[in-house]
Amino acid sequence: xxxxxxxxxxxxxxxxxxxxxxxxxxxxxxxxxxxxxxxxxxxxxxxxxxxxxxxxxxxxxxxxxxxxxxxxxxxxxxxxxxxxxxxxxxxxxxxxxxxxxxxxxxxxxxxxxxxxxxxxxxxxxxxxxxxxxxxxxxxxxxxxxxxxxxxxxxxxxxxxxxxxxxxxxxxxxxxxxxxxxxxxxxxxxxxxxxxxxxxxxxxxxxxxxxxxxxxxxxxxxxxxxxxxxxxxxxxxxxxxxxxxxxxxxxxxxxxxxxxxxxxxxxxxxxxxxxxxxxxxxxxxxxxxxxxxxxxxxxxxxxxxxxxxxxxxxxxxxxxxxxxxxxxxxxxxxxxxxxxxxxxxxxxxxxxxxxxxxxxxxxxxxxxxxxxxxxxxxxxxxxxxxxxxxxxxxxxxxxxxxxxxxxxxxxxxxxxxxxxxxxxxxxxxxxxxxxxxxxxxxxxxxxxxxxxxxxxxxxxxxxxxxxxxxxxxxxxxxxxxxxxxxxxxxxxxxxxxxxxxxxxxxxxxxxxxxxxxxxxxxxxxxxxxxxxxxxxxxxxxxxxxxxxxxxxxxxxxxxxxxxxxxxxxxxxxxxxxxxxxxxxxxxxxxxxxxxxxxxxxxxxxxxxxxxxxxxxxxxxxxxxxxxxxxxxxxxxxx
Length: 637
Description:
With about 625 residues, the protein is α+β, with helices and mostly antiparallel strands. Among the domains are: about 1-220, Aminohydrolase, N-terminal nucleophile (Ntn) domain (Glutamine Phosphoribosylpyrophosphate, subunit 1, domain 1, 4-Layer Sandwich), CATH 3.60.20; about 225-370 and about 490-555, Rossmann fold (3-Layer(aba) Sandwich).
């Protein structure tokens, strides 16, 4: 686990500048660093740099940039290739010098070319330079576990695991991409390929970028929709067969993720996913697995007691830390430092805290991420199934309310909230993304419209707040469609980003067995009825968990702990929020509609509402705004 950065340019970027860019990611790799510059044909220069968190082969043989024996290939790389030992056997004719997976990437490329990426099972962001062909490749893992940004302008390319190295690259000015702001305020994260800056992109999950003589092209080697439909051709028809195959594939995945030359443990919340992963890890281990959870003194929010009962049953070496509101609040100021573009999922704070706890004991931690998206675990999936059943009726209600007399009387807005949501859900490309219309309206209204010429106006046109791409999945079942959409958006853009930045803040590697390539692709072959059975979410995964842990220790309502955003924003963060939303500040900033936002935030601070008689609390939207302003002050103020 590391951080990588580099550039391909005709501009003179010194080694000192490259090293300075690299050192902005010290937290991602405190054990070692390397930076080198090479001359390319056509007057191009290439720089590769890496910060290393040593996990496999702790010796100097794992140093990066790493080169092939004949120095044809150079690589910097962040992540883990879990099947590297199997690949190494297939590559026995290569003169290996180390026992790390980085060298396997080099050998695999020399034998199979860029198609080698299709053989890698792991989480990775790779930059590879082929001197013979004068090609440079950037590669990101299938589901987007590891981040990879790139800035492409005037035929020059700069790349990095985080934005900070790009921000610190000589010549970078960084114009905010206003098109994404309303979507960010609503979604609370920025999904690939966009970033907070124009001309800076996230390489999409499962994608390859090729740079040659100043020209760039990208393609996908793994695509959620394509792999899903290919898997449907070979379904597992019987439940017991599906359960057994999934169980064995998960066990293999967990075992592969326990290979490390440093201490390893597991996050344990007491829920199904983390408990199952921990149980399988304990089964594979000769000694008690180290497990970690955080608890809250407020009894109604505290899940630590459930995690402890699971830990006691499995016999793990369990560590828990009870925290209070102040402990969480103290981390608010650090958010823009480690999430170096606006990111407003408030659960990042709890994730940072459990990562800090784990890092005091281990360098690698297993997690249960991916179980909800691939096996139908979120409450929204149950709501989506109900919405599909009511869609025809909702269309009829909407049609009636659109009749001239009723439309003038604004009848639809007077309907009960649930009826209004179903009736208003008429956009075919976002059928599974229904929700409170007030949030949508306010997120759009907050961002200032730009007066510009025709060409600039086209560039500045705001992206739709919802992802208007649902027809691409070619799936009639809304529940399945929403799961696939989340795999393309919410999972990599929010969940995996949150865990990567929170864990790497403390130089901790997080590994996700459920996001193993074989597990993901197997999940597509499992009939949806095995995942969502008579309203029981994640049915098959729960059934496997019961083979390890008594049902009574797992079957309980999920509690969770929500950060008290409303309390913070209208309490200790109130003055800072009012400063960020003052008319004068917003007018100078020239990003948000100064009059609208200052009025909206002022009303929210006083009442918790953002407008008269809405009956809604706008703490999440206000938090998104606050986090953006916090980021802006650090990097643009």
